[in-house]
Each structure stands twice: as C-alpha cells, then as structure tokens.
Design goal:
heterodimer, A: mainly alpha, 2 helices, 31% helix, B: 380 residues, mainly beta, Porin, 16-stranded antiparallel β-barrel, 5% helix, 59% strand
Amino acid sequence: MRYLVFILPLLFLGCSKKLVRVETYEKENFAKERMQFSPMSVRDEFEGHLFGIRESAVGGESSFSGGCGCK
Amino acid sequence: MQVIWILIAIVLLPIKIVADVLTDKIDFSYEYYADNTDTKINSPTFSFVKTLGEKFAISFKERVDAITAASIKTAGHSGVTNSVILDAVTGASNARGYDDLRYATTANLSYERSDVSGSIGIYHSTERDYIAKSTFGSISYSFNEANSVASILISNSNDKWIPAFSRKLPTDKRKEKRLDLSFTQLISPDVSMQLIYNRIENSGYLNSPYHYLITNNFSVFESVPQRKNANVATIKAVIALNEESNLWTSYRYYKDSWDIDAHTLDLQGFHDLNENTTIGLRLRYYEQNEANFFKNIDDYTLQDDFIGVDYRLSSFDSLTTGVSLHYNPQFEIVGIDLEKVSIKAGINYYKTSKNENISYWYNEDYIQAFYSTFSVEYEF
C-alpha cells in the first residue's frame, strides 16, 4: 500500500497536456460553495457516520471519519 | 509508520501549482437523530482551524454523541417465547438521562505549499464499551493549471471492545486499514467530476458483542468472519444548470470479501433563492445483497461456522430524502462582519425496506429515522 503513495502522483506527471483545461476566467461557477463536492460538509460527515451504522457499505468519500462501537 | 511514509512523500512530490489558502475558522454544529427503534442521538460538535504562518494550520474537533434509550427488543420471532430486552450499549437502558456518551476528538496538522497540500492527524473516541484510536494522513496534488487534483488518504485504526457485560470475546481488537485515492477533474466551465477508490481492510471482532440468536433448541451469540476486505468505487459529478442552480450526483459501488454488493445513488439539487440563501433537495437510494454466510433466522444450526442475525448482513434497501438551507448574512452587527458567517441547516428522512431481521431484533417491520443538522461557521 505504501508504494501507491509514490506511484499515484507519478501517473499524472506527463498527462496534464491531455487533460481538459478550463481557463481561469471560465471558473466562476466553481467559486460557488454549492458547486463543491461537499456542499453540506457537516451533514455529509454526520451522514457518513449514520449510514455506516445502518448499512454495510462504507466509503465513497475522500476524507477520514473515525470508528465507533455501533458499526 | 504510515504517517512517516506520507511525510516522506510530501517532501518528494514535485511542486507546481497553488492549492487552497488556509484560513482561520471556528465551527459549531449540532446534529439530532431519532428512529423507531427507540434510539435518539444528540450530537454537538465544536471545531476550529488556526493557521501557523502561511503554510501550516492546526485543527481540532470535539464531538459528543449523547445516546438515549438505545434498547433493543427481541420479540416477534416465532421461535422466541420470552421477550428479552438488552441494551445495545450498556446492558440496561436508563430510565432517565443518556445511556451512553461517546467523546470523539480529532486533531490534525495541515500543510500547504504551492500545488501540494497535506495533512496528518489523530482520532480518539471513547464510549462505555469501545475505544477507537486512529492515525491518518493525506496528500493532494493540484496540476493542469488547477483543473486536476489527485489525492491520497491513508488511515490506520486500532480499536478495542470492552463489552458492557462479562463476556469473553475471541478477540477484543478491531483494526481497519484504509486507502483512499481520488481524482478530481474540471470537465467544462459547468461540470466537474470526481473519481474515488477506497480499499478498506478490517480484521478482529467485526460484529456487535450483543447480537445473539435464540431458537427453541439453542441460543448463541452472533459470529462472523474475523476478516473483511472491501473495494469501493465512486463517481461524482457537479453540474451547473444555470447561474442559480446546480445538480450534484453520486454513484457508489461497494463489494467486500463477504460477497456483499451494494449500490448507492445520490442526487441533490441546489438553487439560490437570493444572493444570501441557497436551498437544497436530495434523494438517496441504497441497496445491498446478503453476505455469503447469511441465512434466514430459522435455518441456522449449531453446526454453522458463522451466524449472522444483524440485518446489515441481509438484503435490503433504503431511501433517504431531505432538504437543506444555506444562509450567508450580508451585513454587520455591532462591528462584527457577518459576511464571514455561514449558517447551514438540513432535515432528512431515512427508511429501510421491510426486513425479517429488523423485525426479529427491533420488533419493527423496517427502520425509519429523522435526522437534522445545523452548523454555524465563522471565518476570521
């Protein structure tokens, strides 16, 4: 697992020219909070905990949430 | 050890683009949950972020889950003649007050340098019958003129069961190793997408020490395998519909070594009511199939290697609906600039499908719950 820490960034080093590029002056929409991937971050964290208790599946987020004895 | 590897990786990563700017902020939130199984949770949280110079910040979060009447009633199963009441947490529900208090503390150190940001942290929570300890670290790398971001998060948890009643467990440890990889890409001026992969490795005592099966011939505690590995793939998209509205979508596929497959679809829509206020609506659908060792309650025998009565090991689905509100004041009060205040609130309704194991354990056909969230954030 530890080697992935190094490998993943290397995968993207040479490919940036092939990726889509939105110019700075076109990024107005992304400045709005509702356009973020966690627009309701407090609710998302609480729900991550709740759904982890009520359902088997976990994951799907790229942030850390700690464990508890109710899972 | 993994934290050291992450620190090394931060140093070695190539540096190119500017990441998000660290800011000082304080946040207070309050969540409330209540369902038809007599469980109620009051959950206040306080957190702050304090910058240390231009590149570092420390953050601290303290959460308290106050759980009341967490009683589990065993009834309704045809083979059970005596109703048994057992509290999920303490072995006996209190008539007044909280049955359990869970204190969860998170502290972390963040670092931002040009296009790279990183964070390392610790998590510690205590409740009457469970202690959780985790370390975690993450790195995000922004490139392609900030159109693309790749992130890695690694966490390692070493938790411990302390059953509320005297019971010798096969092991009191529960461990989790986790790797999260994500890649975010702007697709157009109106669309961004995110791909996330999670690898989660669990080992130790992975079920509740209080779940049991009672039949006319025998009674045993629930037992499940002591190892479970899961792979999770998620795709998210945020789409601007016009200047005032956008759509948020997410699909998650989960598969683990117990052969549980799960699909989750989440749709949310946001609309600016005015320049200060945004309303959101959401619809979430979840479904899973059963674990490979799961049987109908009446089919278990003492010869079975594993016995699962927890409904989370069975096939079921759930539906969540909700509404949210986000308010940013645009004025000052007694010299305080309220433009830096952000207020968010939401209320949601959750309901599972009918399930035999929910009936067996909770004496309800399904689980339905209301939960609400409220937060105030101040940046300074």
